[in-house]
Amino acid sequence: MDIGPTELIIILLIVVLLFGVGRISKISGELGKGIRAFREGLQGSDDEKKTSETDIVRKTEPANTTETENEIAKPKNS
């Protein structure tokens, strides 16, 4: 029970008769925009993961001491 090329052509003709060429192109354009937005959303979530990973690394790295902290830690030689 395979669908052959003649059946596909008949189905395509029926769809064109029901919806019209303009409506089909509009629907396909909106479908393309939806797919593009979905892909951008997936890439956005990957970018968020990368930023959260770098934030974690920044929080766990020891902070560099500044000169004022070093001066406070050293006793004065007076």
Give a written overview of the molecule.
It is rod-shaped and about 95 Å long. 79% of the residues lie in helices and 0% in strands. It has a domain of 29 residues. The protein contains 3 helices and no strands. The mean pLDDT is 78. It is mostly helical. The longest helix is centred in the middle third of the chain and has 40 residues.
Specify the helix fraction band. over 70%
What is the structural class?
mainly alpha
* Overall mean confidence score, pLDDT: 78
Strand content: under 5%
Number of strands: 0
From the structure provided, what is the oligomeric state, counting identical versus distinct chains?
Answer: single chain
Give the overall shape. Answer: rod-shaped
The largest β sheet comes out as: none
- Residue stretches low in confidence (pLDDT < 50, at least 5 long) are none
**What is the N-to-C succession of helices and strands?**
HHH
Distance between the termini: 100 Å
Number of helices: 3
Indicate the radius of gyration in whole angstroms. Answer: 31 Å
Features:
mainly alpha
In short:
The protein has three helices and no strands. With 78 residues, the chain is an all-alpha fold.
Write the layout of secondary structure elements.
Blueprint (H helix, E strand, L loop, with lengths): L4 H15 L1 H40 L6 H7 L5
